[in-house]
Amino acid sequence: MHPAGDYVPRGRVRHALSARLAQHIPATHSTVKVWYRLYDDTWGIVAHSIEVDAYQYVLPWLYLRGSYRYHHQTAADFFTTGLAPPVPRDFDRTSDSDLADFHANEWSVSLATVRSPAHPWSVAAEFLRYVRSNDLTLTAVSLTLARLL
Question: How do the domains of the chain map onto residue ranges?
């Protein structure tokens, strides 16, 4: 859904290429994962994302996870924050901040227990901070209780 007054092209072709790499380190009971994604579409948006996750077992049934993600994208060809009137109705335009040029940083840390058939319950607590260059900021705290069925 786009803001009122926005007109976007009817069609959109999207392409994404991603790569993942994971390494478990048995001697320290830790794991590192790296992920990269390249995105391109016919609206003129090109985006790059990279994420790094690190998992460290504190106890055999408890682990700590830290994560960082960086994202940058270019604006859609028809993104604008202001047009002089009169604006033709068939003129593609949007002021949707999700289609703007921006970069974003996301950090999170969580502590979680491991579920197993012998221990079907798990608990996790997470803190997340997301900051985007075009004035969007999010801070979230979550507590999760789950049961293996």
Answer: 14-81+96-147
